[in-house]
Amino acid sequence: MGNLELNLIIIGSALILSGLSVFLFYKNKLGKNIMLAVVSASLSIAITVVALISILLEPKITLKGSYKMEIPVFGEYTESGYSATLGNDDVTDAVTVSGKVDTSVVGKYNITYSYKNGKKVYKATRTVNVTDKVAPEIKLNGKNKIIVSDMKFYKESGAAATDNYDGELTENIKITKKKINDEKYNIIYTVTDLSGNKSTLIREIEIKDIVAPVITLKGKSTIYINVGGKYTEQGATAKDDMDGDVTDKLKISGSVNTAILGTYIRSYSVTDSCGNKKTVTRRVVVRVPEDPTKNRICLTFDDGPSNVTITVLDILKKNNVKATFFICNYDKSKLPIIKRMINEGHAIGIHGYSHDYATIYKSETAFMNNINKLHDKLYKDTGYDSKIMRFPGGSSNTVSNRYSSGIMKKLKVRVTNEGWRYFDWNVSSGDASGSLSSNAIYKNTINGLKKKRTNVVLMHDLGTKKTTAGALQKIIDYANDNSYSFWAIDDSIPQIVH
Ligand code: ZN
Predict the structure, then answer these.
(1) Ligand 1 midpoint to CA 329 (Å)
(2) Cα of 7 to ligand 1 centre, how many Å?
(3) Which of 103, 157, 255, 278 could form a disulfide with 141 if both were Cys (CB 3.0 to 4.6 A apart)?
(4) How far is the CA of 393 from the centre of ligand 1 (A)?
């Protein structure tokens, strides 16, 4: 209790006492207690006067600003000032200030302002509370939103927490899992600093059946093997986003018969523990190798049968030469010519029911229908099951891009996968362009021939190409004089492609 309060109590008590005295004085009507009342009242007045003088002589210390301050930790404390009076005198200079505030440490600090008057010390106190009211910061390791196919695949990657005052609080993080519904979970990260400030962060987990494993083939996706060679499985690896390495679950199927020409499909399948299945395939092409001991010529006639086919067949027969005809659709009257080709040992390949680029290169389906339609017709008419074909315009044509961009790349895979061997040419007679003389066709052809390889010669079997038939005898004579031999395309002929 301060001196001021004490003095005020004294004054109050004295006033009550003097009032009581006046009351007694009145009640006794100037009776026998009169002396006691007079003494009592006088004493009260005297005490009051002394107390009032005491108040007037009491020093008064006044603080500027708040007596109770709050400062955030690491903030700045500045003395906001004070003053002191004694009676009418300013005695501020005589005040001493003690106490210190360390704003880097949370806690309560007292600053004491003292004034010494004789033996008595008068004091005022300011309380400074340095507080930490900033909550810790949580950072998730990994993503805020995670998709897993099953909650059992969720791997907790944790979080880190730091506080502005306490520093590292990672070990204080509490992690709880809350199911929202069958498709959603929340992982809740909570941390409280030593001052009681709490932070919460949520990671959302979505349950979705999504990602199939990834299969990587060892070796190439298309493998070429010479007929009679050996196929060695190089295997594959499989990885799943949830299950990890699932190579041991891989199932490989599809047989390869290297004794028989064709394209074989090896299939690599794997299913992850959530039922997501993945399949990749490898094409194994069993092909005929080039035979450098032979100087082979395969004469090929496109677009027939026609009005000149009989002339061509007669020349071939006379010379005992076997050739190959890549035919288009034919009407009934031409069927005997087709049968003659077969009977005389020539090969028949499929060029296409229609030769119209806009129609056949419109789509993969349109193209496949176009070759299958003619194949089936030929088979029905003659029993001849053709396995070879030639793309109208050749496999390297660019005209097809006008009707379906990039279709040739797809078609080459498609026809191969469906069991066809397609043939382009490596010698062109040039008879496709305009009406070339027989001599020019002959020259083009013999200039293109090379020894120790298979020469596939492009010629045409059209009513308008009479000069081709005219060049044929000279070409055969040249070949015979230069140790070439003629072959119809069969399984022993390597696939000549652009
Ligand atoms: Zn053609």
Answers:
(1) 12
(2) 128
(3) 157
(4) 6
Find out whether 44 and 71 touch, Cβ atoms under 8 Å: no
- Ligand 1 center from residue 65 Cα (angstroms): 104
CA of 351 to the centre of ligand 1 (A): 7
**How far apart are the CA of 460 and the centre of ligand 1, in A?**
8
Phi, psi dihedral angles at 148 (to 5 degrees): -130, 155
Tokens of 263: 């394209």
pTM: 0.57
Distance 354 CA to ligand 1 centre (A): 10
CA 367–ligand 1 middle distance (angstroms): 14
| Short-list 421, 445, 420, CA closest to 431 | 445
Ligand 1 centroid–CA 459 distance in Å is: 9
Q: In what order do the strands lie in the sheet with 137-140?
A: 137-140, 159-163, 167-168
Cα-to-centroid distance, 355 and ligand 1 (Å):
7
432 CA distance to ligand 1 centroid (A)? 9
pLDDT in tens, the chain (498 residues): 455 666 677 777 777 877 777 777 777 665 666 777 777 778 878 877 777 776 667 889 999 999 999 999 999 999 999 999 988 889 999 999 999 999 999 999 999 999 998 888 999 999 999 999 999 999 999 999 998 878 887 899 999 999 999 999 999 999 999 999 988 999 999 999 999 999 999 999 998 767 889 999 999 999 999 999 999 999 999 999 878 899 999 999 999 999 988 889 999 999 988 788 999 999 999 999 999 999 999 999 999 999 999 999 999 999 999 999 999 999 999 999 999 999 999 999 999 999 999 999 999 999 999 999 999 999 999 999 999 999 999 999 999 999 999 999 999 989 988 989 999 999 999 987 767 899 999 999 999 999 999 999 999 998 777 788 889 999 999 999 999 999 999 989 999 999
Name the residue among 49, 61, 41 with its Cα closest to residue 7. Answer: 49
